[in-house]
Amino acid sequence: MKSFSWPVRVYYEDTDSGGVVYYANYLRFMERARTEWLRSIGVEQDQLRDEQGVIFAVRRVEVDYLKPARFNDNLEVTAKIVAQGRASLTFEQSVLRHDDGRPIELCQGSVKIACLDAVAFRPCPIPDDIKTEMRSVC
Predict the structure, then answer these.
(1) Cβ-proximal residues to 45 (8 Å cutoff; 6+ apart), any chain
(2) Most buried of the four, 102, 106, 131, 135, by CB within 10 Å?
(3) Closest by alpha carbon to 109, among 67, 57, 63?
């Protein structure tokens, strides 16, 4: 799959007392990028739940923090599928800042997403229409 990217601006509320982005907020930025990736292929998560009875939930996260982001930074958050199972997707994600036109990687992570039955919270296959849309952007 091609890498998807989404812009994020750092707000004051994203920072800690040291003036840098609080570590857990990188996960929020990554979540936004994955949500926007789904939207870009025509999938709204509330409709997915209501119409097909499935949701996506984070199963596993591994994150490396490399450099700090600060208040007012304009960031780029990427998402790329690196593995696909019957009921899961694994994304490779990065949070970047561009300094003098060159990308500086601030944070990198691997996020495994499980497709779940929205009522039973048990794994279920990724719907065929989503797989079809995913293939179309690869």
Answers:
(1) 35, 38, 55, 56
(2) 106
(3) 63
Does the reported pTM lie above 0.85? yes
* 136: pLDDT strictly greater than 80: no
Per the structure, the complete domain to which residue 99 belongs is given by: 4-137
Q: Which of 74, 57, 93, 61 is nearest to 21 (CA)?
A: 74
**How is residue 117 written in tokens?**
């039955």
Distance (Å, rounded) from C-alpha 29 to C-alpha 33?
Answer: 6
Structural domains counted in the chain: 1
> Across the chain, which distance is largest between two alpha carbons, in Å?
50
Helix or strand holding residue 84 (H, E): strand 74-84
Residue of 14, 16, 99, 100 marked active site: 16
Question: Distance from CA of residue 134 to its chain's centroid?
Answer: 15
Q: Span 80-104, mean pLDDT?
A: 96
- The answer to whether 16 is a known catalytic residue is yes
CA 39 – CA 36 distance, rounded (Å): 5
Q: What is the CATH number of the domain that holds 84?
A: 3.10.129.10
